[in-house]
Amino acid sequence: MNFSVSAPGKVILHGEHSVVFGKTAIAVSLGLRTTAYLKETSNTFININLPSVLVKESVQLHHINTEILSYKSYIEHPQSIPHEEHLIKTEIFVKNTFPNFDNFSGKQKNALIAIFYVFFGVFGGKEIRGFEISFVSDLTIGAGTGSSASFAVCLAAALLRFAKGSNESIINFEEKQLISQWAYNCERIMHGTPSGIDNTTATFGSLVVFCRGQKPNLLDLKLNLRILLVDTQVSRQTQVLAQKVRGLMGRNPEAVDCVMTAMDHIAKSALKILQNQSSNCEGDVDAQYQNLAELWNMNHCLLASIGVSHPALESVRTSADKFGLACKLTGAGGGGYAIVLVPRTANQKVIDDLTKELADKGFKVIDTALGGPGVQYYV
Ligand SMILES: Nc1ncnc2c1ncn2[C@@H]1O[C@H](COP(=O)(O)OP(=O)(O)O)[C@@H](O)[C@H]1O
Ligand SMILES: C[C@@](O)(CCOP(=O)(O)O)CC(=O)O
Fold it and tell me: GHMP kinase C-terminal domain: from which residue to which, for each copy (predicted)?
């Protein structure tokens, strides 16, 4: 077998943090993707190549095949896997396999543990053949554009296809659900208690309306949304920011709940506008953009009120505001990315000037469209 599989990153338009507390979130797939390349070999080892986190490792096949027999396969039932037990067992294997494991960075450790977690969960009890797997990504890692979910979706999709020996290029809904569930388990390794919005968007693409504990609503909208994706280059950890908000909620439940409820209203109002724009563009398009812009600005300020902005994000907002454009942080905040809404009628000179100002401040700017396909195989 020799194939590749890719999955998009995402931006959260509305609902970051509030989604953890049961409120509505809207996420949209990005044009930036991760691609996994898997090639079966006749070698007596497996090769893992992760250039984004500077990992290139080989593991002897007989070492893996000895271990794999002590696992049970959960290939079709990732939700039934005894997560903690399976994770601890995988961690012990990974530590014993890579002698320099303790010197690896957190990103390297997480990536390797996730790979073997899915690997043993899918192939458990069955000897495997030699293969090479590499992951290449357009996404910045740890910046809030869902690199971990797009990595996890590619990982799950690649190993499931390898295990089943399938060569279908179309992935049906049930297969996507299975991929998304495996990816969710990986997200638990990376994030602790993820809401599930990232793996759902990376799997299904387009626009996902998400509310914890409910089936995600997958909307195949014809989005015509252009944004500037601004990388502040300030690294942050989702888990740390999520814990910070949890602490604030614990100390001030009534106040923080009101903020979360306001975020919920914003997400629902924005969704109505996007649905209307996608279906028939009824009404005044400029007024709709103005309304979306207000919602973006309000959402950002609410996020700042719960302590997840950053001076770099505020600096992006100051520039966007100077050029009359709305801007919000996306994802966990504390650095990472901001998104600037570009109205359909925007003057290109304004966009160019803003892009230059942001670049002069040391930020990286990508002018991109939102929407686009979820996980896809290529043969
Ligand atoms: N291309 C990749 N190669 C290897 N590991 C990756 C890749 N992309 C993401 N990861 C893993 O995902 C983790 C990033 O998760 P996270 O901090 O949530 O960032 P993001 O917000 O971009 O998803 C990294 O620590 C790393 O283990
Ligand atoms: C803060 C949170 O709502 C979004 C995290 O987004 P990101 O992984 O930083 O893009 C956490 C979550 O939904 O699991």
Answer: 282-358
> What pLDDT is attached to residue 212?
87
SS3 state of residue 90: helix
Nearest residue to 216 (alpha-carbon basis) of 201, 237, 227: 201
Taking the CA atoms of the chain, what radius of gyration do you get in angstroms?
21
Atom of ligand 2 nearest to the CA of 12: 10
Residue-wise pLDDT for 224-239, tens only, equals: 789 999 999 998 888 8
CB atoms within 10 A of CB 312: 21
**Atom 10, ligand 1: residue with shortest CA distance:** 148
Supply the CATH classification number for the domain 225-370: 3.30.70.890
Q: What letter does residue 16 receive in the DSSP assignment?
A: T
Closest to 274 (Cα-Cα) out of 34, 32, 24: 24
Give the span between the Cα atoms of 128 and 42, in whole angstroms.
11
Task: Please give the single-letter amino acid code of residue 224.
Answer: N
**Which residues, including other chains, have CB under 8 Å from residue 219's CB and lie 6 or more apart?**
206, 207, 208, 209, 275
pLDDT at residue 172 above 80? Answer: yes
Residue with more model confidence, 281 or 287: 287
Q: What are 74's strand-pairing partners?
A: none
Quickly name the fold that domain 2-221+374-378 has.
Ribosomal Protein S5; domain 2 (3.30.230)
Instruction: Please indicate whether residue 245, judged by its CB atom, sits closer than 6 Å to ligand 2.
Output: no
The helix (run of H) or strand (run of E) holding residue 223 is none
pLDDT of 281 reads: 61
Q: How many Cα atoms sit within 13 Å of 170 on the Cβ side? A: 2
Note if the pTM is more than 0.90.
no
Both tokens assigned to 208: 């996902």
Residue ranges per structural domain of the chain:
2-221+374-378, 225-370
- The predicted structure's pLDDT at residue 247: 97
- CA 110/CA 154 separation, integer angstroms: 15
